[in-house]
Amino acid sequence: MRNWKLESTRLRLKPLSCEELNCILQDEFEKVILKYDTDSILTDTKSAIEKKLKKMGSAGSEEYEWYTYWLIIEKTENKGIGFIGFKGPPKESGQTEVGYSISANYRRRGLMSEALTLLIDWAFESSSCSGVFAMVRKDNVASAKVLRNCSFSAVEASDGYDRYVRSLR
Asked: CA 32, CA 21: separation in Å to the nearest integer?
Protein backbone atom coordinates (compact mmCIF):
# COMPACT_ATOMS: atom_id res chain seq x y z
CA MET A 1 0.00 0.00 0.00
CA ARG A 2 1.26 3.43 -0.85
CA ASN A 3 1.77 5.75 2.08
CA TRP A 4 -0.96 8.22 1.08
CA LYS A 5 -1.78 10.97 3.49
CA LEU A 6 -4.45 13.48 2.70
CA GLU A 7 -4.48 16.71 4.69
CA SER A 8 -6.66 19.73 5.29
CA THR A 9 -6.35 22.49 7.83
CA ARG A 10 -7.80 20.40 10.65
CA LEU A 11 -7.54 16.79 9.49
CA ARG A 12 -5.24 14.14 8.14
CA LEU A 13 -6.54 10.98 6.46
CA LYS A 14 -4.38 7.88 6.61
CA PRO A 15 -5.24 4.71 4.66
CA LEU A 16 -5.00 1.70 6.94
CA SER A 17 -3.12 -1.46 5.98
CA CYS A 18 -4.52 -4.95 6.58
CA GLU A 19 -2.25 -5.22 9.63
CA GLU A 20 -3.58 -1.96 11.05
CA LEU A 21 -7.19 -2.98 10.43
CA ASN A 22 -6.51 -6.28 12.23
CA CYS A 23 -5.05 -4.37 15.19
CA ILE A 24 -8.30 -2.40 15.46
CA LEU A 25 -10.33 -5.64 15.38
CA GLN A 26 -8.14 -7.03 18.19
CA ASP A 27 -8.70 -3.87 20.29
CA GLU A 28 -5.07 -2.87 19.81
CA PHE A 29 -5.84 0.54 18.37
CA GLU A 30 -2.78 2.06 20.09
CA LYS A 31 -0.61 0.14 17.60
CA VAL A 32 -2.19 2.23 14.83
CA ILE A 33 -2.18 5.64 16.55
CA LEU A 34 -1.28 6.50 20.13
CA LYS A 35 -4.30 8.68 20.80
CA TYR A 36 -7.83 7.88 19.69
CA ASP A 37 -11.36 8.59 20.76
CA THR A 38 -12.85 5.33 22.04
CA ASP A 39 -16.26 6.37 20.68
CA SER A 40 -14.84 6.28 17.15
CA ILE A 41 -14.73 2.47 17.14
CA LEU A 42 -18.33 1.35 16.89
CA THR A 43 -19.62 -2.22 16.63
CA ASP A 44 -20.77 -1.45 13.07
CA THR A 45 -17.27 -0.20 12.27
CA LYS A 46 -15.70 -3.48 13.37
CA SER A 47 -18.20 -5.42 11.28
CA ALA A 48 -17.37 -3.28 8.24
CA ILE A 49 -13.63 -3.77 8.86
CA GLU A 50 -14.10 -7.54 8.74
CA LYS A 51 -15.85 -7.22 5.37
CA LYS A 52 -13.16 -4.87 4.07
CA LEU A 53 -10.38 -7.26 5.06
CA LYS A 54 -12.02 -10.07 3.08
CA LYS A 55 -12.27 -7.85 0.00
CA MET A 56 -8.72 -6.56 0.43
CA GLY A 57 -7.46 -10.14 0.58
CA SER A 58 -8.68 -10.79 -2.94
CA ALA A 59 -7.85 -7.36 -4.36
CA GLY A 60 -4.60 -6.25 -5.91
CA SER A 61 -2.46 -3.96 -3.78
CA GLU A 62 -3.12 -1.09 -6.20
CA GLU A 63 -6.79 -1.24 -5.16
CA TYR A 64 -6.28 -1.24 -1.37
CA GLU A 65 -6.98 2.46 -0.99
CA TRP A 66 -10.38 1.88 -2.63
CA TYR A 67 -11.28 -0.88 -0.15
CA THR A 68 -9.69 0.13 3.12
CA TYR A 69 -10.80 2.53 5.79
CA TRP A 70 -8.92 5.78 6.02
CA LEU A 71 -8.40 6.87 9.63
CA ILE A 72 -9.60 10.42 10.27
CA ILE A 73 -7.02 12.12 12.49
CA GLU A 74 -7.70 15.45 14.17
CA LYS A 75 -4.40 17.28 13.74
CA THR A 76 -4.17 19.51 16.84
CA GLU A 77 -4.63 16.54 19.18
CA ASN A 78 -3.13 13.96 16.77
CA LYS A 79 -6.09 11.78 17.68
CA GLY A 80 -8.03 9.21 15.66
CA ILE A 81 -11.66 10.31 15.61
CA GLY A 82 -13.36 8.31 12.85
CA PHE A 83 -13.20 6.34 9.63
CA ILE A 84 -14.06 6.96 6.00
CA GLY A 85 -13.67 4.82 2.91
CA PHE A 86 -15.01 3.44 -0.31
CA LYS A 87 -16.56 0.01 -0.81
CA GLY A 88 -14.26 -0.72 -3.73
CA PRO A 89 -12.89 0.88 -6.87
CA PRO A 90 -15.24 2.55 -9.35
CA LYS A 91 -17.46 0.13 -11.27
CA GLU A 92 -17.92 0.19 -15.03
CA SER A 93 -20.32 3.10 -14.50
CA GLY A 94 -17.42 5.10 -13.01
CA GLN A 95 -19.12 5.32 -9.61
CA THR A 96 -18.03 4.07 -6.20
CA GLU A 97 -19.85 4.01 -2.86
CA VAL A 98 -18.55 5.83 0.21
CA GLY A 99 -19.22 5.19 3.91
CA TYR A 100 -18.05 6.95 7.05
CA SER A 101 -18.38 7.30 10.81
CA ILE A 102 -17.09 9.76 13.37
CA SER A 103 -17.06 9.82 17.16
CA ALA A 104 -20.07 11.57 18.65
CA ASN A 105 -17.57 13.77 20.53
CA TYR A 106 -16.47 15.34 17.22
CA ARG A 107 -19.78 15.79 15.45
CA ARG A 108 -21.39 19.11 14.52
CA ARG A 109 -18.04 20.76 13.75
CA GLY A 110 -17.91 20.19 10.00
CA LEU A 111 -15.14 17.63 10.37
CA MET A 112 -16.89 14.84 8.49
CA SER A 113 -17.70 17.20 5.60
CA GLU A 114 -14.02 18.15 5.56
CA ALA A 115 -12.91 14.49 5.56
CA LEU A 116 -15.39 13.58 2.82
CA THR A 117 -14.18 16.46 0.65
CA LEU A 118 -10.58 15.27 1.00
CA LEU A 119 -11.45 11.71 0.02
CA ILE A 120 -13.66 12.75 -2.90
CA ASP A 121 -10.92 15.02 -4.25
CA TRP A 122 -8.52 12.06 -4.04
CA ALA A 123 -11.00 9.77 -5.84
CA PHE A 124 -11.61 12.26 -8.62
CA GLU A 125 -7.85 12.30 -9.36
CA SER A 126 -8.41 8.81 -10.78
CA SER A 127 -9.50 8.77 -14.41
CA SER A 128 -11.73 5.77 -13.64
CA CYS A 129 -13.86 7.66 -11.09
CA SER A 130 -16.63 9.87 -12.39
CA GLY A 131 -18.93 9.80 -9.37
CA VAL A 132 -19.36 8.91 -5.72
CA PHE A 133 -22.59 7.82 -4.08
CA ALA A 134 -23.83 7.05 -0.57
CA MET A 135 -26.85 5.17 0.72
CA VAL A 136 -28.28 6.85 3.81
CA ARG A 137 -31.12 5.77 6.07
CA LYS A 138 -34.01 8.21 5.73
CA ASP A 139 -33.83 9.01 9.45
CA ASN A 140 -30.08 9.83 9.37
CA VAL A 141 -30.45 13.59 9.11
CA ALA A 142 -26.83 14.31 10.11
CA SER A 143 -25.36 12.13 7.37
CA ALA A 144 -27.67 13.63 4.77
CA LYS A 145 -26.48 17.08 5.83
CA VAL A 146 -22.83 16.05 5.42
CA LEU A 147 -23.57 14.88 1.89
CA ARG A 148 -25.44 18.05 0.97
CA ASN A 149 -22.52 20.09 2.40
CA CYS A 150 -20.27 18.20 -0.03
CA SER A 151 -22.46 18.91 -3.10
CA PHE A 152 -24.22 15.53 -3.24
CA SER A 153 -27.76 15.40 -4.58
CA ALA A 154 -30.52 13.04 -3.50
CA VAL A 155 -31.52 11.06 -6.58
CA GLU A 156 -33.77 8.22 -5.46
CA ALA A 157 -35.27 6.53 -2.43
CA SER A 158 -36.02 2.90 -1.62
CA ASP A 159 -36.44 0.55 1.32
CA GLY A 160 -35.92 3.24 3.94
CA TYR A 161 -32.77 4.64 2.28
CA ASP A 162 -32.00 7.69 0.19
CA ARG A 163 -29.28 7.58 -2.46
CA TYR A 164 -27.03 10.62 -2.76
CA VAL A 165 -24.72 11.17 -5.72
CA ARG A 166 -21.93 13.54 -6.59
CA SER A 167 -20.70 13.41 -10.17
CA LEU A 168 -17.49 14.74 -11.61
CA ARG A 169 -18.76 14.87 -15.14
From this structure: 8
